[in-house]
Amino acid sequence: MARIDLVDLAHSYGGNNAPxxxxxxxxxxxTWRQGGAYALLGPSGCGKTTLLNVISGIxxxxxxxxxFDGKDITPLSTQKRNIAQVFQFPVIYDTxxxxxxxxxxxxxxxxxxxxxxxxxxxxxxxxxxEPYLDRKATRLTADAKQKISxxxxxxxxxxxxxxxxxxxxxxDPELKWQLRSKLKALHRELDLTMxxxxxxxxxxxxxxxxxxxxxxxxxxxxxxxxxxFDKPAHTFVGYFIGSPGMNILxxxxxxxxxxxxxxxxxxxxxxxxLPAGAKIEIGVRPEFVEVVAPGPGLLTARIERIxxxxxxxxxxxxxxxxxxxxxxxxxxxxxxxxAGLKFDPxxxxxxxxxxxxxxxx
Amino acid sequence: MDKTVNQKAWFLVLPxxxxxxxxxxxxxxxxxxxxxxxxxxxxxxxxxxxGWFKExxxxxxxxxxxxxxxxxxxxxxSLVILxxxxxxxxxxxxxMPREGxxxxxxxxxxxxxxxxxxxxxxxxxxxxxxxxxxxxxxxxNAIGIDYNYVSNEVDAWVTVIVMDVWxxxxxxxxxxxxxxxxxxxxxxxxxxxxxxxxxxxxxxIQLPKMNRVLLIAVLLRFMxxxxxxxxPFVVTGGGPxxxxxxxxxxxxxxxxxxxxxxxxAALSLVYNLIILIVxxxxxxxxxxxxxERKVQASSKPAVEPKPSVGLKPVPALKPREGVA
Lengths: 361, 324
Known about the structure:
The structure holds two protein chains of two kinds.
Chain A: E1 4-11, E2 25-32, E3 37-41, H1 48-56, E4 63-68, E5 71-72, E6 83-86, H2 98-108, H3 113-126, H4 142-154, E7 161-165, H5 173-190, E8 193-198, H6 201-207, E9 210-215, E10 218-223, H7 225-230, H8 235-240, E11 247-250, E12 252-260, E13 263-271, E14 280-284, E15 289-292, E16 299-308, E17 313-319, E18 322-327, E19 338-343, E20 348-352, E21 355-357
Parallel strand pairs in A: 3-8, 3-9, 6-7, 7-8
Antiparallel strand pairs in A: 1-2, 1-4, 4-5, 9-10, 11-14, 12-13, 14-20, 15-19, 16-17, 16-19, 17-18, 20-21
Helix pairs in contact in A: 2-3, 2-4
Chain B: H1 9-35, E1 37-39, E2 45-47, H2 51-56, H3 62-95, H4 101-115, H5 118-128, H6 135-142, H7 153-181, H8 185-193, H9 198-226, H10 230-235, H11 247-257, H12 261-288, H13 294-299
Antiparallel strand pairs in B: 1-2
């Protein structure tokens, strides 16, 4: 059980003297609270696995410190940290039975036989592995193997945090959600800090109560799924979360107005303090843009196609060179392929150099 | 399922048939033919039935005595070779670097003995071990060890064994190294998190993952050491006395020295059969070691799990799902 603090942590595979842009993990300071379910979300190569390996101790960071409950554990080896990790591909000790696999970490730590048997039985029950305890682990399916990898972590009573590195990659799609809900249930039951690395936003948003979005070695936003959806702190978050992603349009913003190609879009807040020389964009989620019949005061767009997702329809439109997605209300049709766009002012955000700017009320 | 009838396929198979027939089947049949007959030269043959085979297995006859004695020596030799080369090869593979330029250096050094022709290996050691001019023989005698592979049986054995270890441990090491390299890094990381000691990592991860290549290594080393001819023939010529006369050396003596084609043919057939049988036993034992017995599972129906979607044993590893 522990709170994990990262203090000015950074890592470069090229050593500490490598140029700052080349760092796989740019300096980050953040706190993971005890018992939280976190997802580290980002595209491949954004540094999320590096961050995970730094926490588990597989990688020693180039800079900064990691604190478990305020105690500096940066120099400690993986063995000495109370961490469990589940890898992308199931790690199973082939020659052992499921039970022996679960007992392995305890045996290595010299725990007495009776205690081991008790813990193994307990974890076997918790993970629904009971009927398999006496069977060879190699013959089980990938999802059972992932449960065993997880079990090897949980079996230790001192474990402070469980780290998952894209654990569902090799699991059949129909079993993914089962295993995921199992993880969720375990999290509620065991009061463990869980950190879950993934590039799949559905996985991240359903598993975690706090999602940490990473981009290019940086933590760009950390918040609840709702926060990430409603108020992306970075254009990358807006674009990466949600399907389709947020519409980002270059604009001129003055006061309560944004100008896109000569057309004025109203804003809910006043933006008078925008940094000079910055690249200004507005971002609005497709859910908050509606295609309607063209009319005065509306931005005119050409409709390219309409995607019917069943519950909702999204029109793919073009304004000048920019491509947008917008909600198409039921029964909407366009005779000549043009439409007007209606923006919901309370959900139009302003970004300066890709970062969210808070307007004045 | 409808099969396409295409008789032209025979033309593709035929060349292989012919090549195998002329290179393997016909010579083998000739040997079988010889093994049933006796010859006194002049291309005159007399029917002998299974007479040679009876003699072969009877230690009181000259042929049987020589065969069984050399067979005993050969089995002992193979046993010693496996007992030394397999563990040594594993140790060498484990201590090799995993990355960097030293990997290439190690691989080249290890591969060198494998590239030397067998009779050259024999010649190298024959000279190397000579007490008068050989570096090894001279040095050993100079520091007071009475070493002479020509006159001392133990010295001859030690020389032949050390030579084989020098020549072939690399093969085992390279195979094991290939096996080790194929273990994903995550296994070591997981073992580290599980607090496994070096020995536990070896036992739980490295050895099981090397299982397949070790099987190949053991088979190859058994076959080669059991068929060994060139190196001991060059170094000791089978001596002193008959102490390093292995089956192949005995066979050549009978076939080419005495020109006893019938005896030699019978001996080579039995020789061949022994190699086949021992390899089959090795293969069966090693592939079945660690495989879960079906009998075991069905004898305990109580623990047999009810079918659940999440967990069913798979007969083989499924291919990886693509990364989305």
